[in-house]
Design goal:
heterotrimer, A alpha+beta (about 425), B alpha/beta (about 230), C alpha+beta (about 400), A: about 425 residues, alpha+beta, six-stranded mixed β-barrel, elongated, B: alpha/beta, 7 helices, globular
Chain lengths: ~425, ~230, ~400
């Protein structure tokens, strides 16, 4: 029986090829557009988030309490400090230090330490505000693949640590090139003005605006010497290992907060709230657009199914007369629209999936607008994202739109009583 | 009298499939004079509709020639055929052949308006013809407000209003009861008399067929009978 | 006759005509309002960004914008100010001398920008004076009084009345330092700007920085800000090759481009919605003409030419389209007008705007009748196009097939 229903559904679709094809095409093309939109917009947002995580925040960043409001060298994190616990005579810090326990934690893929201080960077002609960031290059490379952000130069501070890697916007403002001499000056821990001459060994473009405009990365040891800080760092950023998600992150954050109550442990989205907001906004935006598109598409399917039902009332009357149940007719109609919906979904998912694969592999190159994109903190080349949920949600939406539109057509069928039509001739 | 419509060697083949070919008309030879009142009859599927369509330039024969008032129809463009139908041929179809959004009067005047005839003239003509057909009280109604017989009378009025040389009617009485059918045919006959228009119609209703002055019978696409009854 | 027939046909298929009109109207309304919204928000963001500090038009020394060093300063501010005052397109002008210095207070030192300006003239070209949140704005005759960004004040831990010191280099590369007293604190909403800027009266600034009659920029307020690019061209010829005159379109080029990209993505997204709407309109047109195919066949049999049938069907869709865009334009235009008068407030999104360096939380839509008409015309064309395929397809059928179509 069901194969007969399928045959009849197919036959009636084939009888009106233009109409059926238009519906399939409508679903396919709009799905294609939606998938591209979602994949590319998500790609953009995730890229911005990934830039912020790689170049600065990690998944979690640990600062001394109060540091973010008042970034001073007096508010530092001691990576060797153990967790707070009760010891004889009050509170103490026994046990393995922060860095050691992070290194031992399977949830943590890597962590880096940075010593940061606001200061001035000057060439013989210009001077600018700058943020001096003492880093360990190997660690940064391991964690954020910082070297990938180099636009020119070497990922190296040289044998004596006299090199500096600076943000590309800062370099442009200072009019300094690779190998050019810069003088950085800042207040040291004792409050004295300290300065040192460096050579630009690399220029970096992270599209993290704060860094591109202000960052002067120097060797951590050199920064310690310059700023008179023997131990302690401004920031400790860590990356979660693969396979751990949001919940693990929240758990880890909670444990760290409990263990080191005098430290501020912030997730990336607490450091860059605007990025999280973009992500949420994008989701909502996609949802609204998808809703609109599928709603209108449903209207299209409804129109076709309604006409198809109305013009076959006689046919249905004959089917009823020879003993077919109303259910068989309902099934045929339902199957017809599902066939169209699924064909549209398959074609659209295929086209959208292939396009997204292309853009994931080769990226969408908008370098014509690169300077403007940087205003948004975006890369010139956007790599699309493909999520299984795009397709599963789209399939659900297509089926839903189909079912709703068939429901209304069937109500019309119910009201018009096919038996009466056949008797009228 | 000169031959008005001449069909020679008409064949019409339908080929819905590569292996199937149906000969709808085969070797049809027919000559009709101006002012004749002709019925084409025959069982269903005998080719009546196809023959009328070919005469009216709605369809073209697979081979053979159609001459209408010394004009060769075969080979005319779609646009030329439209002009020919507009200016010289009136059509009446089986059912539902009025334009649904136009009133009876507007339907009757439609072809004249296409021809560019001015409004006063159209009015006069539709008035005259509807009076003749006894439908002058229905002129402001829309088709769905009319009965089947009334609709067909309006259709006939429309077909003759523009004074065509030829009126073709394909089963005009098929959807009417016998009383309405007889009335319609009587009316067409009167028009044939009074307006001198050539009328060719098809039917398979013996009572209707009997009223024609010439009878052409088709069977399997061939003319099997072609006789003139002189009723006078 | 065809026109009347078209109108009657539209009325005869009331429900489907209504649906088609509604779909078209929704599309038009959506396009009109989206455009008004995007244009309005972009204009607002740019206006804010421009008016807070950078200004509509900047005059600098010839190559200062490429290499902003003390060698490319403006060395005759007085003469230029005089020239500008006589130029009819110029409402006001104000010189600035920007320099990067280190501010210090007790143990703290923070790098930032110290700028000398003429308080009264500056008030006419930027919103600096209006951004006051504590103390007072600068006055003529002020000496070491400082007008400080709120964030910078917080970093230095100073308030109104407190003292701080700065070190920097003067226009002659000499060492410059002085003690300054905070008289006012401002907040523009541009975080980076508020965190790194401080201002003082130019007369006193010039004496400690050796910058008399010199400036890094002169900011020009055009009488008609919309004419800034034209004014910049005129001033460039007037002032000669030693100077550069750049409108906000050049000085804020990345922001302008960024807004264009934002629009581009906005329109791409709208396109996805419109594609499906057009398919639906196409499908409904197809259904409608096929429902009338017998009628069309009879018209053809009666001698209506294919061209006349085509004209009739096109007339119908042209009328429907016209109603759609009129209705949609009216609705979209009404929304655009309403929100141009009552700007939308996005208090919760300030953080995100700030990320783009924009101090905006209330965004008006742009109500531009010409743009609305353009959008309506565009949508009208698209609506017509979407009905073309079904119309041509049905018109291509021979009349005999049309009459006997089932």
């Amino acid at each position: 029986m069901s194969s007969l229903v399928l045959k009849m559904a197919w036959a009636s679709l084939a009888r009106r090829p233009t109409r059926s094809l238009l519906v399939v095409l409508m679903i396919a093309v709009s799905l294609w557009g939606l998938l591209l939109m979602q994949g590319i917009y998500d790609g953009m947002t995730e890229q911005m988030i990934s830039n912020a995580i790689r170049s600065d925040a990690g998944h979690l960043s640990i600062f001394a309490r109060g540091y973010r409001l008042d970034p001073s060298l007096d508010l530092l994190v001691e990576p060797e400090q153990g967790p707070a616990q009760e010891v004889a005579g009050g509170l103490g810090n026994e046990g393995p230090g922060l860095a050691a326990s992070l290194a031992a934690d399977p949830r943590v893929a890597s962590h880096v330490v940075r010593l940061r201080q606001n200061g001035l960077v000057a060439t013989s002609h210009y001077s600018r505000h700058a943020e001096i960031i003492g880093v360990e290059l190997e660690g940064e490379q391991l964690q954020g693949r910082l070297a990938d952000y180099l636009t020119t130069g070497k990922y190296d501070f040289g044998p004596k640590g006299k090199g500096a890697i600076i943000g590309h916007k800062l370099a442009a403002k200072l009019q300094v090139r690779l190998g050019g001499k810069i003088v950085v000056s800042a207040q040291d821990r004792a409050g004295e003005l300290a300065g040192t001459a460096l050579r630009v060994s690399g220029i970096i473009r992270t599209n993290n605006m704060g860094l591109d405009e202000n960052a002067v990365f120097i060797d951590l040891a050199r920064a310690r010497g310059l700023l008179g800080v023997e131990s302690g760092v401004s920031q400790l950023a860590l990356l979660l290992a693969k396979g751990y998600g949001e919940e693990d992150l929240a758990a880890l954050q909670g444990e760290l907060r409990a263990g080191w109550p005098d430290l501020a442990v912030s997730r990336w989205d607490e450091l860059y709230p605007a990025l999280m907001q973009s992500r949420v906004l994008m989701r909502g935006f996609s949802l609204v657009v998808s809703g609109l598109v599928f709603g209108v598409a449903g209207l299209g399917i409804f129109g076709v199914m309604l006409v198809s039902v109305l013009e076959r009332l006689r046919e249905f009357g004959i089917m009823l007369a020879i003993g077919a149940g109303l259910n068989t007719i309902r099934k045929t109609i339902l199957l017809e629209s599902l066939l169209m919906g699924l064909a549209g979904f398959l074609a659209g998912a295929l086209a959208g999936g292939l396009s997204l694969l292309y853009f994931r592999r080769f990226g969408l190159d908008l370098s014509v607008f690169s300077e403007a994109l940087a205003e948004f903190g975006m890369d010139a080349v956007t790599y699309a994202i493909i999520r299984f949920s795009y397709f599963s949600e789209a399939l659900a939406a297509v089926i839903l739109a189909t079912l709703v539109s068939v429901y209304f057509s069937l109500r019309v069928l119910g009201r018009s009583r096919p038996m009466a039509v056949i008797n009228k001739g | 009298m000169a031959v008005f419509l001449e069909l020679s060697g008409i064949n019409k083949k339908f080929q819905p499939d590569k292996e199937v070919a149906v000969l709808a008309l085969s070797g049809v030879e027919l000559a009709i004079d101006q002012g004749e009142f002709v019925v084409i009859s025959g069982p269903s599927g005998s080719g009546k509709t196809t023959l009328l369509n070919i005469i009216g330039g709605l369809d073209s024969p697979s081979s053979g020639e159609v001459r209408l008032a010394d004009l060769l129809l075969t080979g005319l463009s779609e646009r030329e055929l439209s002009r020919l139908r507009r200016d010289h041929i009136g059509f009446v179809f089986q059912a539902y052949n009025l334009l649904p959004v136009l009133t009876a009067r507007e339907n009757i005047e439609y072809v004249m308006r296409l021809q560019g005839v001015g409004e006063p003239e159209c009015r006069a003509r539709s008035g005259e013809i509807s009076a003749k057909l006894g439908i002058d009280s229905l002129l402001d109604k829309l088709p769905h407000q009319l009965s089947g017989g009334q609709q067909q009378r309006v259709a006939v009025a429309r077909a003759v209003a523009s004074t065509p040389k030829l009126v073709l009617a394909d089963e005009p009485t098929a959807n009417l009861d016998s009383k309405a059918a007889a009335a319609l045919i009587d009316m067409m006959e009167r028009l044939n008399d009074e307006e001198g228009v050539t009328i060719i119609f098809s039917s398979h209703d013996p009572m209707v067929i009997a009223k024609a002055r010439r009878s052409v019978v088709l069977h399997d696409g061939r003319i099997v009978t072609n006789v003139r009854h002189d009723l006078s | 006759m065809l026109l009347e027939l078209a109108i009657r046909n539209i009325r005869a298929h009331g429900r489907r005509s209504l649906l088609t009109i509604l779909l078209g109207a929704v599309s038009t309304g959506l396009l009109v309002f989206s455009t008004a919204w995007m244009d309005g928000s972009h204009a607002q963001m740019i206006r804010n960004a421009v008016e807070i500090y950078p200004g509509y038009l900047q005059i600098t020394g010839a190559s200062f914008r490429e290499s902003p060093s003390y060698e490319h300063l403006i060395f005759d501010v007085e003469r230029l100010s005089g020239l500008l005052a006589r130029e009819p397109g110029v409402a006001d002008s104000s010189p600035r001398f920007e320099s990067f210095v280190l501010f210090a207070r007790d143990e703290k030192a923070v790098g930032g920008m110290l700028t000398g300006l003429v308080p009264a003239r500056e008030a006419a070209v930027s919103r600096l004076r209006d951004s006051l949140v504590a103390g007072r704005y600068l006055e003529k005759g002020d000496s070491n009084q400082l007008y400080l960004g709120k964030e910078l004040a917080r970093r230095l831990g100073v308030g109104v009345g407190d003292e701080l010191a700065f070190v920097g280099s003067g226009a002659d590369y000499s060492f410059a330092a002085d003690r300054l007293r905070v008289v006012g604190i401002f907040q523009t909403g541009l975080f980076d700007f508020d965190a790194a800027s401080a201002f003082m009266a130019k007369d006193y600034f010039d004496t400690i920085m050796a910058a008399e009659n010199q400036a890094t920029h002169i900011i020009v307020q055009p009488r008609d800000p919309g004419q800034a690019p034209e004014l910049a061209r005129r001033l460039a010829t007037l002032l000669g090759p030693e100077y550069q005159a750049a409108s906000w379109r050049e000085t804020m080029a990345p922001l302008v481009k960024a807004m264009e990209i934002d629009s581009l993505f906005g329109y791409l997204t709208l396109a996805v919605i419109f594609i499906v709407i057009f398919f639906v309109i196409m499908i409904y047109t197809l259904l409608l003409v096929y429902a009338r195919i017998r009628e069309i066949g009879i018209m053809r049999a009666l001698g209506t030419t294919p061209g006349q049938v085509l004209t009739l069907l096109l007339l119908e869709s042209a009328l429907l389209g016209l109603l759609s865009v009129l209705l949609g334009g009216l609705i979209g235009g009404a929304f655009a007008y309403y929100y141009s008068v009552h700007p939308m407030v996005f208090a919760s999104m300030e953080e995100q705007f700030r990320q783009y360096g924009l101090a905006v939380s209330a965004i008006p839509a742009a109500f531009a009748p010409l743009v609305i008409l353009r959008d309506m015309a565009l949508m009208y064309l698209l609506l017509l196009l979407s009905t073309l395929y079904p119309i041509i397809k049905v018109n291509g059928l021979p009349p005999i097939e049309a009459i006997h179509h089932v």
